[in-house]
Design goal:
- This protein is α+β, with helices and mostly antiparallel strands and about 425 residues long.
- It has 3 domains: about 130 residues, Schlafen, AAA domain (Methyltransferase, Cobalt-precorrin-4 Transmethylase, Domain 2, 2-Layer Sandwich), CATH 3.30.950.30; about 160 residues, Heat Shock Protein 90 (2-Layer Sandwich), CATH 3.30.565; about 60 residues, Winged helix-like DNA-binding domain superfamily/Winged helix DNA-binding domain (Arc Repressor Mutant, subunit A).
- Helix content is about 35%, strand content about 25%.
- The chain has 14 helices and 20 strands.
- The chain has a 6-stranded mixed beta sheet, with helices on one face. Strands 1-2-5-4 form a 4-stranded mixed beta sheet.
- α8 packs antiparallel against α11.
- About 0% of the residues have low confidence.
């Protein structure tokens, strides 16, 4: 009498359950499905074995992803003198395999447990993905196969860079099989990683002045976080004769590079913890998850050695003209503090990387004949001056008056609305702003 076990399963006749069994065998150690055998091992045979083979082949080809046909074979075997269809399944190399109608989740991914095909846990699914992709998180197949890439597509369009189906494959957002990778997930609205920015009133985190959490595509996060930090970047105004000279507390280029460095080089496979940006009166700190790339020391980084943990993500940021690929980020951060200015600090542990930028308006700087205010306050004054002259302005006019990006202008106007300084009329493209 035949018996079922981890590598053998019996089906009295063809049923849709065969697809689940094929998935389970391909995800585990392979096995055989015998069609024409009862669960108790009694051989009944099949009347039309060729028709059954055709059904099985069509089901495997149409219902299972990725394509597992090269790891399967259907044949007719005589057992106890009766024809039995034997479906042989090898362990696949593109695990996890899943039912196309269910997706890469426990309802669609199965493994063998004893003599049964059971749903795989999410932990087991992620383990299969890591095993298939090696150490590369960004290249691994994503659990999210319906990524919302609208913002990323708009960003590419703004930069004049093509973002069609062919480009997505070339850039690594989709594999050769058309399946989306984790890189696509990082650039989608469903990105599980966020960036938190906090503004503090003292030397520690006991007193919050403002805080925001930015989510969605990494491109959106870094753009909006930079705009928010820029609004809280203190402005030091001094005078030489009749000329007013403005100096930012944190050099804009240093802030930009610190944020980009945190996004491009963090370890997204290690944890879903947020990238943290903390603004104190005397310093700005950027902390990202993931220490140094294996084989590279902090001294190497400070010397300009470029080691990419996420080369595909870095390539996208390079194509969008956001970064350079030759290890210039740290040099640009340091270059924002020339002469006798206090130097930025770089620190790394096994699982984190930290950049500390000193505030030039307070660190070792003379404060005589200087007025220090937040960048947001200074730019609000410019918008208010324009409103007093024109009574009604658009977002674009406010943006031009303050000399900021669109994202910064939106944040400024929201801040002024919250304070009750201005009012908004209309909506969408017809929005306008007046003095309250």
């Amino acid at each position: 009498m035949l018996t079922e076990d981890k590598t053998h399963e019996f089906k009295r006749e063809y049923t849709d359950g065969i697809k689940k069994s094929v998935v389970a065998f391909a995800n585990t150690d392979g096995g055989e499905i015998l069609v024409g055998v009862d669960d108790n091992g009694a051989v009944r045979g099949v009347r039309q074995p060729d028709a059954v083979i055709l059904q099985v082949g069509n089901a495997i080809r149409e219902a299972i992803r990725p394509d597992v046909t090269m790891f399967t074979d259907c044949s007719i075997r005589k057992i106890a003198g009766k024809p039995v269809v034997v479906v042989t399944v090898q362990r696949g190399t593109a695990r996890p395999y899943y039912l196309a109608g269910k997706g890469i989740r426990p309802e669609g991914v199965f493994i063998r447990h004893g003599a049964a095909s059971v749903p795989a846990s999410e932990t087991a699914i992620l383990a299969m993905i890591r095993e298939t992709a090696g150490d590369s998180y960004e290249a691994a197949r994503s659990l999210q196969q319906k990524p919302d890439l609208k913002y990323t597509a708009e960003y590419f369009s703004r930069k004049g860079v093509a973002f069609g189906a062919a480009q997505r494959k070339t850039l690594g957002l989709a594999g050769s099989d058309g399946m989306f990778t984790n890189l696509a997930l990082l650039l989608s609205a469903q990105c599980p990683h966020t960036m938190k920015v906090g503004v503090f009133g003292g030397a520690d985190k006991s007193t919050f002045r403002d805080r925001r959490e930015f989510s969605g595509s990494l491109l959106r996060q870094v753009e909006e976080a930079f705009a928010f930090v820029d609004l809280h970047n203190p402005l030091r105004s001094s005078y030489r004769g009749l000329e007013r000279q403005d100096e930012r507390g944190y050099p804009v280029e240093a802030v930009r590079e610190a944020l980009l460095n945190a996004v491009v080089h963090r370890d997204y496979g290690l944890s879903s913890a947020s990238t943290l940006v903390s603004i104190f009166p005397d310093r700005l700190e950027v902390v990202s998850v993931g220490g140094l790339v294996k084989g590279v020391s902090l001294a190497d980084i400070l010397l300009g050695v470029s080691a990419l943990r996420n080369p595909r993500l870095a390539n996208i940021f390079y194509r969008l003209n956001l970064i350079e690929t030759y290890g210039t980020g740290i040099a640009k951060i340091m270059g924002g503090y020339p002469g006798n200015a206090p130097r930025p600090e770089i620190a790394a542990s096994d699982h984190a990387f930290k950049v500390i930028l000193p505030n030039l308006t307070v660190a070792g700087q003379p404060r005589a004949a200087a007025a220090i205010m937040s960048s947001a306050d200074a730019r609000q004054e410019k918008i208010l001056s324009l409103l007093k002259a024109r009574e009604t302005i658009t977002r674009q006019e406010a943006q031009d008056a303050a000399g900021v990006s669109q994202a910064s202008a939106i944040l400024l106007l929201r801040l002024m609305l919250a304070k009750g300084v201005i009012r908004k009329t209309g909506g969408g493209k017809s929005s306008a702003y007046t003095l309250a």
